[in-house]
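Below is one such record:
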Amino acid sequence: MEEDGLTIVYTGKGKGKTTAALGIALRATGYKKKTCMIQFIKGSWHYGEMDSSKKLEPEFEMVAIGKGFVGIIDDKSPKEDHQQIAKEAIRISNEKIQSGNYDIVILDEINYAVNLNLISVDDVLNIIKSKPRGVDLVLTGNYAKDEIIEIADLVTEMREIKHPFQKGIKAKKGIDF
């Protein structure tokens, strides 16, 4: 008998949302479960999980689709480009979720994509409502909308209490990226 898949949301202003999702992937890999992580915002920068994810293959697949963080200092892309790529990420997400090839699908930074108006909350709700019964779905990113929180099975809010950036310490390899 197939178990019901969960919808899990990691949100909040504190660090650790993507890391928590990767923890699920690491644990699932130990049980030979297949996981796909689709990254909605990240993509143009190099970060550790781009390399480490390859070490978890064939159980883990990472698809980095985004053009990088939207609207920050070195972002030269028009918002329309980010929107187009986010819509493509939605299409790929639906394809992966419906394929029957994955036990877990992680939609990394999808909540940010909604908050930045790259995709709609309805796009996300449709994904959640149409996922096959046995697929666990993990959504990360700050600013999770109330409608998503309401429909989810598990919601964890990361809360920043203290951050090294406040002391002038820059992002650190292996910890932040």
